[in-house]
Amino acid sequence: MLVQVLVPLALVGNGLAAGVMLSTVIGVVPWMLAQPYDRYVVATRFLWSRYDPFMPIVNALTCVLDVVLIFVVPAAVPRTLFAAAAGLLLVVMTISIVKNVPINRYVTSLDPAARPPDWERRDPRMRWRGWNLTRTVLALVAFGVNAWAATALISM
Description:
5 helices; mainly alpha; 88% helix; single chain
């Protein structure tokens, strides 16, 4: 019974997080790259205050669900797949904490009205985009692995 509750929750959490991340790749990031300095800073402040409490919670909860599933699923193949998904989500969260969050903090600390003189050299948008794309691909792969694990369970 526990597995029947945890697997759908892991799939929903991972799918939701991966979907939100994919939406940033196809919509938010191109829009942010098109913004002038002042609007980019204001937009980052606006968006980060909405994504930051939501995304870390969803990714962490999904990772915890995958870890729990490693111990409660009776078969080796799904257990291994849930472990792989948890590992991928740990990498997603590590990239977020080590790469993307420091960039967000830097940008939100800026004064939108006072563009730094070396902005062209220090503009972090392309670095943020690259790391965001990497973690999005990993989150999507984790979702596929979680779906594979669920399918393996159903097939038993």
